Amino acid sequence: MKDIYELLNDMDIDESEFEEMEVSEWEKAKVTSVVKASIHRRKRNWTRIAAAAVLTAGLSAVMLGITFPAYANNIPVIDNIFRLLDSGKSGLFDHYKEYSSDINLTEESNGITFTINDAVFDGETVFITYSLVSNQDLGIKPVVHGLLDIKGTDGVAGGNQISKVGPNKYAGLITGTGFSNVKDKKTASVKWSIDSLVNPNNKQEITGNWDFALKVMATDSSTQTIDRSIQHNGAVVHIHKITFTPMSFILYYDQTVDQQVRSQWDAVDVGIKIKDDLGNHYTGQGNGGAGDKEGYNMNWSKTFEKLEPKATKLIITPQLSLYNHTSDNHGSVEMSRDGADEQIPLQREQGNEREEIELEDIIVELKK
Amino acid sequence: MRSNEGNFIRRLQRQKEDALEFIIDTYLPLIKGVTYKVLSPLGNDGIIEECINDIFLSIWHHADKFNGETADFRKWICAIAKFKAIDYYRKASKKMEFTAADVREARHGMSAEDELIMREDKRELVHFINLLEPVDRNIFVMKFFLGLNTEDICRKLGLTRASVDNRIYRGKKRLFNKVNSGGHV
């Protein structure tokens, strides 16, 4: 016997009868999250693994290169809320979902419920999706005050993106890349302590305690050493290695800048563009970097989309950016554990200059 | 692996969630169109939203019943959308007639068989439709699940109005016997 769905399958419907209607990304995200929630009725057991407190004296967040050009189509569970955050749709996070784990840790404080939904660690960067439900409106993009710590690192760089997804409901993605010489690439023990939320509309601050501790296992990966350098007038870019994970690849590179360049420019940084021999372009997202205090000699990493399996070569184009600081383009704040934020005054002021130089391509044969 | 135009049906049938995302992404504008057309007279956006979610959930749960290519899939989900939307409309409006045209057909009477048709639990009706010969089966699905009016059914099947009316009448009579006597059809 045929059921309704089979009977309907036999029908030859006249499609011209139907008209498409405009649908926003927002609506798609909403439908997907509701339908998925109905599918996921199974309960999960969650063990909370408390990570030892990590105390780093100074937390230096290097935010260069973090612009969040694109957000995930596919970051877990509330993935379509991430599609909502993805304006550029580069597909950087297309494959993250398959390799992430569900976390579902919830903390409630002062009328606001914070939930960590999912997490994935690629050996370099931890990606954590979260949602929050509030008893009051927190504006369009509330500011979440709280530092992400990764055990055993000297500092964490990262970004946080949040968006309103319904009345008093928000969803976001926080990323953190730890910096350390002896880093654990297999697991990331993450602590995230949120102490306040600020509504940007009326500057109202809601304090509370939302403390999370979780451990995320890294996805499988393989590394190919590159060790190639390219030089331009006293600035050297060194491509160190590439790590391939099932959902991405990460390029590690560093820059060194000599005294002559330093005397001319306040800041130097290196951007990377990559394409493969099949013509695919990889957009990527910088993970920040760590280095000397002046920021001239730096170690960087940048995460790119999943490598096209048929590609045999990667064409890496480093891009040198040289800047002089002005009050328009520069400013920094030092954050420390005791909570005092100190504005660092601008040291010197020169002309509003900036120069970008594209360096020669570095072509890498991929080992298979 | 991600779903694309070429593999999403297979992935949906294997219950891969990225296929669900793919169909929502691809077909939501169409499904919304179908649902709005039926349900907008109710003036209740909540019902429309609920219905759309229900449609995708049904597609997910019954994906294995689908047989065909991408173009057929599009038709299939339109049919499901229309069927669901009409079902929601009936429940919401508590009206017994589906379209204005049905009022004219009231001479068939709203009786035990109509109640069976309106029932939320469609099992009996589906069982009954399965017993009909193919042409009548199509007429019944179009009429009672897809809310097509008699003129449209005539046009689609190349039958005269009298013939379609007659088939509906006879079908309903069989249904009536089934409902009332509990006996054979």
Write a brief caption for the model.
The complex is a heterodimer of chains A (368) and B (185). With 368 residues, chain A is mainly beta.
Give keywords.
heterodimer, A: 368 residues, Immunoglobulin-like, 5-stranded antiparallel sheet, 21 strands, globular, B: mainly alpha, Rna Polymerase Sigma Factor, Chain: A, 2 domains, 10 helices, 71% helix, 0% strand
Task: Please describe what this structure looks like.
The complex is a heterodimer of chains A (368) and B (185). Helix content of chain A is 10%, strand content 47%. With 368 residues, chain A is mostly beta strands. Chain A has two domains: 58-217, bacillus anthracis domain (Immunoglobulin-like); 222-365, Conserved domain protein (Immunoglobulin-like, Sandwich). Chain A has a five-stranded antiparallel beta sheet, covered by helices on one side. In chain A, strands 10-11-12-16-15 form a five-stranded antiparallel beta sheet. Chain B has 185 residues and is mainly alpha-helical. Chain B is globular. Chain B starts with 7 loop residues before the first helix and ends with a helix. Classes of the chains: A mainly beta (368), B mainly alpha (185).
Per CATH, the superfamily of the largest domain in chain B is RNA polymerase sigma factor, region 2, helix turn helix motif
Distance between the termini of chain B: 50 Å
Oligomeric state, counting identical vs distinct chains? heterodimer
Topology, number of strands of chain B: 0
Distance between the termini of chain A: 52 Å
Uncertain ranges of chain A: 42-82
**Strand fraction band of chain A?**
over 45%
> Which architecture of the largest domain in chain A would the CATH scheme give at its second level?
Sandwich
